[in-house]
């Protein structure tokens, strides 16, 4: 259903039960370095209604401080605790499953810093896990080290499955492509944490004490944002301001609960 007109009463009622909105960033709140004109109105509406919002991203090459600074440049005030990355979800997963504090992190300096601040010791010597992120500093030596460890039975975890990361110059290889390289060399498939996997929502709910029935995921990708929300049992809202086009819905197994042209339309529903 493409909700291009005012939604019926049951949709308004459904949204009234939502206390926390999980918001994808690129394609939902902004596009590249351009804030969508309706984003500030939407966020202000949530604040007036006493509802919370958390920005959720698969990009593990940057930490929360980076996104706070980027949002500030675009005119959006956000606190570090309102940013949740796949790196932070991976930290929750490692702690929940008691992997131990020593890990081998194949990632950017920002991701390494995030793990150190969480109390992990980064080491190539007998680590409890190999954690692969979106590594813009990837080298052959890092790949060789990861393959040696994984081949010898060290658990292999990837922060997220994206094959490509969009940039203004075009797509560049992302974490999923890097994981495929290690898998091809070792025959081992990683445990993947980020969207579309429900571990991301589980970690969020645990961190913030959220009840799934009061949470909604808002995003522009069917196979990540909507797929994750459906698997996690939360309300899903697709916005058509980014990647997904209306014709993509016909062939997708991941169907949202609601569809809006953009965040500004959702703001009107909440009015």
From TrEMBL:
GO MF: metal ion binding; phosphatase activity
Residues binding Mg(2+), per UniProt: 24, 26, 220
A GO cellular-component term linked to this record: cytoplasm
Keywords: Magnesium, Metal-binding
Keyword Metal-binding: yes
EC number: 3.1.3.-
Textual note on the cofactor: Divalent metal ions. Mg(2+) is the most effective.
The keyword Magnesium appears for this protein: yes
Co-factor requirement: Mg(2+)
Residues engaged in binding substrate: 195
Entry function: Catalyzes the dephosphorylation of 2-6 carbon acid sugars in vitro.
UniProt-listed NCBIfam families: HAD-SF-IA-v1 (TIGR01549), HAD-SF-IIA (TIGR01460)
Protein family membership: Belongs to the HAD-like hydrolase superfamily. NagD family.
PANTHER family assigned: 4-NITROPHENYLPHOSPHATASE-RELATED, HALOACID DEHALOGENASE-LIKE HYDROLASE DOMAIN-CONTAINING PROTEIN 2
Protein name per UniProt: Acid sugar phosphatase
